[in-house]
């Protein structure tokens, strides 16, 4: 399917169930050179503050995200969209669901790490309001690769825009 012929699709986003793990792992293997193993998913999802969600189109699972609630932020641990559904609005819909969970009085930002070589993910998150706020040197165990820390800050509706990038960097601390 060419980029020009890809049309946006509406997805249903719901909690991840144990029975979804085979489909989630299949997407994971298609998307990443160093995929999580089943045990990685299970141990993460067994934690009380860790949540998994999936995106469905029809009867097909086409994306997933795993995140953890921390005191003042949401930390995205894993996020992927099946290759044949990328650039069709699935990831943006999943992010919108996550952004909808932010509040100025509670969790007011979303943070995640992106491999320095994953330009597609960097651009996707940037297009969705995230900004790079730091670098974690040698972050990954499987390669000596660095990670960019990217952050989305909740801004009340009346401001109508993101904080300037330098303000985000200052507050990331």
What CATH architecture label of the largest domain applies? 3-Layer(aba) Sandwich
The CATH superfamily of the largest domain bears the name: Gcn5-related N-acetyltransferase (GNAT)
Mean pLDDT: 89
What can be said about the biggest beta sheet?
7 strands, mixed
- Under CATH, the topology of the largest domain is which? Aminopeptidase
List the helices and strands in order.
EHHEEEHEHEEH
- Shape call: globular
Describe the protein.
The chain is an alpha+beta fold and 173 residues long. It folds into 2 domains: 1-88, Gcn5-related N-acetyltransferase (GNAT) (Aminopeptidase); 102-173, Gcn5-related N-acetyltransferase (GNAT) (Aminopeptidase, 3-Layer(aba) Sandwich). The protein contains 5 helices and 7 strands, in the order βααβββαβαββα. The protein has helices at residues 21-31, 38-45, 90-99, 119-127, 165-172, and strands spanning 12-15, 50-57, 60-69, 73-81, 109-115, 131-136, 147-153. Strand 3 and strand 4 form a beta hairpin. The longest helix has 11 residues, at 21-31.
What's the helix and strand layout?
Layout: E1 12-15, H1 21-31, H2 38-45, E2 50-57, E3 60-69, E4 73-81, H3 90-99, E5 109-115, H4 119-127, E6 131-136, E7 147-153, H5 165-172
Parallel strand pairs: 4-5
Antiparallel strand pairs: 1-2, 2-3, 3-4, 5-7, 6-7
